[in-house]
Amino acid sequence: MGMHLNPLTWQLWGYVVLAWLMCMVVLSDLLEHRIPNAYISIALLLGLALNTFGPANGHEGLLAYFPGALGFWPALWGGLIGLLLFLPLYFVKAMGAGDVKLMMALGVFVGPGDALNLALCVLIIGGALSLVRMLASGTTALVVHNLKGMWTDVSHGQAPTFNPLSQSAERMPYALAFACGLLAYGWWRQMGGLPFIRF
Question: What pTM did the predictor assign?
Answer without folding.
Answer: 0.83
